[in-house]
TrEMBL record:
<comment type="similarity">
    <text>Belongs to the thiolase-like superfamily. Beta-ketoacyl-ACP synthases family.</text>
</comment>
<dbReference type="GO" id="GO:0006633">
    <property type="term" value="P:fatty acid biosynthetic process"/>
</dbReference>
<keyword id="KW-0012">Acyltransferase</keyword>
<protein>
    <submittedName>
        <fullName>3-oxoacyl-ACP synthase</fullName>
    </submittedName>
</protein>
<keyword id="KW-0808">Transferase</keyword>
<dbReference type="InterPro" id="IPR014031">
    <property type="entry name" value="Ketoacyl_synth_C"/>
</dbReference>
<dbReference type="Pfam" id="PF02801">
    <property type="entry name" value="Ketoacyl-synt_C"/>
</dbReference>
<dbReference type="Pfam" id="PF00109">
    <property type="entry name" value="ketoacyl-synt"/>
</dbReference>
<dbReference type="InterPro" id="IPR000794">
    <property type="entry name" value="Beta-ketoacyl_synthase"/>
</dbReference>
<dbReference type="InterPro" id="IPR018201">
    <property type="entry name" value="Ketoacyl_synth_AS"/>
</dbReference>
<feature type="domain" description="Ketosynthase family 3 (KS3)">
    <location>
        <begin position="1"/>
        <end position="394"/>
    </location>
</feature>
<dbReference type="InterPro" id="IPR014030">
    <property type="entry name" value="Ketoacyl_synth_N"/>
</dbReference>
<dbReference type="GO" id="GO:0004315">
    <property type="term" value="F:3-oxoacyl-[acyl-carrier-protein] synthase activity"/>
</dbReference>
<dbReference type="InterPro" id="IPR016039">
    <property type="entry name" value="Thiolase-like"/>
</dbReference>
<dbReference type="InterPro" id="IPR020841">
    <property type="entry name" value="PKS_Beta-ketoAc_synthase_dom"/>
</dbReference>
Length: 395
């Protein structure tokens, strides 16, 4: 991993996001519209001129986020697209709702004259649009795809990127996740499921992973991108390496459309698969960036699975206490934050954690900690029973 780019509710860019995550400062606000009141995490306002030539394609908000995070990741990696062999560069993007913002914006116009819907509305509303935009912006002509495993999408994209590199299908993968799902349909839909926090009187305290008072997740938007390279390629160009992804594992619950398996079987299988792939023992894992959304059932099941898998009690954090739940982008953002934990020797606090809830038996803290870390694990879980674990090692 040679480059990282972030655009999250916690900050516009890698450094701003990391600073706020380490400070444990939640990024949340009330959102009111004709459909109700919600607590959400929005990215900071940005100048759309930063999108460059891509503006002429009228990109969906998810595509805009992807472009900005991908550009920062490339700059961080010291890669100039004008100088690379684009046929050896792949683009993989995880997203659960890509195109939804454009689709919902123009849906009310279907009963009006056809010319009221602009020609580029359709391609911008398609789920593949973030990957296509990134590919066009940077001349990446290798494998290009959007991956959807709900809230595990970003992590799935990273796992697939590792396989592409291992198979020598490319030299570089620009990989990440993006989400712009703060739309009327998705806000109302997640709320009807009972998944969202309703702490309207205290928006900054809404996202409370593993806390006794958690009542649901904080739905958020944003993007995270990473540059992954074959080791030989990175060495040949003298690249700085931030971390290595040494293993990944995936498994499905095959249980329920939205609820995780009560026994955490899919999580356990993904963890075992990732450790086998990495060639590591359980006690080798020193830190876990957990999925930790703040839902009563989900956090309890995840905590129990982690406690069984890692009885030596590695440090655990959920950075969603600050960023909120970036849905399909979460896995990529959290892998990036786990990378920074390895580099800087810091375990970020789990914001808003005052007292762990009953049955939360992992080493999670509301305070940040310094620690020498050689290995970390990032865990993602998605609706439909998708579970993905990524094992990272210090460079």
């Amino acid at each position: 991993m040679t480059g990282v780019g972030l655009l999250t509710p916690a900050g516009d860019g890698l450094e701003d996001t990391w600073r706020r995550v380490c400070a444990g400062e939640p990024a949340a606000a009330l959102h009111r519209d004709a459909h109700g009141t919600f607590v959400v995490g929005r990215v900071p306002e940005f100048d759309t001129a930063r999108l460059g030539e891509a503006r002429r394609w009228k990109p969906d908000r998810a595509g805009q986020f992807a472009l900005l995070a991908a550009r920062e990741a490339l700059d961080d990696a010291g890669l100039d697209p004008a100088e690379w062999d684009g046929s050896r560069v792949a683009v993989l993007v995880g997203s659960g709702t890509a195109g939804a913002e454009t689709y919902e914006r123009y849906l009310p116009l279907l009963d009006s004259a056809p010319e009221d819907v602009p020609p580029l509305a359709l391609p911008s509303s398609l789920a593949n649009s973030p990957a296509a935009l990134v590919s066009m912006a940077f001349g990446a002509r290798g494998t290009t795809a959007v991956v959807n495993t709900a809230c595990a999408s970003g992590a799935t994209a990273l796992a697939m990127a590792c396989d592409l590199l291992a198979l020598d299908r490319c030299d570089v993968v620009l990989v990440g996740g993006t989400e712009a799902g703060l739309t009327p349909y998705h806000l109302r839909g997640f709320d009807r499921l009972g998944a969202l926090s309703r702490r309207y009187e205290d928006p900054l305290g809404a996202s409370r992973p593993f806390d006794a008072q958690r009542d649901g997740f904080l739905i958020a938007e944003g993007a995270g991108f990473l540059v992954l390279e074959r080791p030989e390629h990175a060495t040949a160009r003298g690249a700085r390496v931030r971390a290595r992804i040494v293993g990944h594992g995936s498994a499905s619950d095959a249980h329920h459309a939205v609820a995780p398996h009560p026994g955490g079987t899919g999580i356990a299988a993904a963890l075992d698969d990732a450790l086998r792939n990495a060639g590591l023992r359980r006690r080798d894992i020193q830190h876990v960036n957990a999925h930790g959304t703040g839902t009563p059932r989900g956090d309890a099941i995840e905590s129990a699975a982690l406690a069984r898998a890692f009885p030596h009690q590695p440090s655990v954090t959920s950075t969603k206490g600050v960023t909120g739940h970036l849905m399909g982008a979460a896995g990529a953002v959290e892998a990036a934050l786990a990378t920074l934990s390895l580099q800087k020797g810091v375990v970020p606090p789990t914001a808003n954690l005052t007292a762990p809830g009953p049955g939360i038996e992992v080493d999670v803290s509301g305070a940040g900690r310094s620690a020498r870390l050689d290995t970390a694990l990032s865990l993602s879980v998605g609706f439909g029973g998708h579970n993905v674990a990524l094992v990272l090692a210090a460079a």
